[in-house]
Amino acid sequence: MAGKEAIACILDINPSMDTEDDGSLTTRLELGKDAISKVISSKVLAGKSHEFALFFCGSDTSNNFLHDSMGGDYKYVEEVYDTARGSCELLARLSSLISN
After folding, report:
1. Please, are residues 80 and 54 in contact by the beta-carbon 8 Å criterion?
2. Of 25, 34, 37, 75, which residue has the fewest beta carbons closer than 10 angstroms?
3. Each residue's pLDDT tens digit, 72-93
4. pLDDT recorded at residue 12
């Protein structure tokens, strides 16, 4: 049986992610959100106490520990969800933070 995991999910929210992927009706951003949601859901439903963090890259905001502690490096990276146990709240937050 595997031990507890800490998983950092990073989602590119750059404007180019609003492009539909290969002629489909789904944007790259939606595909990325869906992939992260599936990873979190599978871990939460398995009843494991894994921890997750959620970061956006390509953000207008620079809000992360490394940016703050290193005087301006790591720009355009936003820590959205600090490392905590995965939950339905995290999934809801992921869905509500980015709307097309």
Report:
1. yes
2. 25
3. 777 888 888 888 887 777 787 7
4. 92
Judge residue 80's burial from the number of C-beta atoms within 10 Å of its C-beta, 0-12 exposed, 13-18 middle, 19 or more buried.
buried
Please state which CATH class domain 6-97 belongs to. Answer: alpha beta
- Interatomic CA distance for residues 65 and 93, integer angstroms: 20
Taking CA atoms, 20 is separated from 28, 40, 41, 68, 94, in Å, by 6, 24, 24, 34, 20
Q: Using CA atoms, how far apart are residues 66 and 80, in angstroms rounded to an integer?
A: 14
Rounded CA-CA distance 36/99 in Å is 15
Q: 78 - beta bridge partners?
A: 56, 63
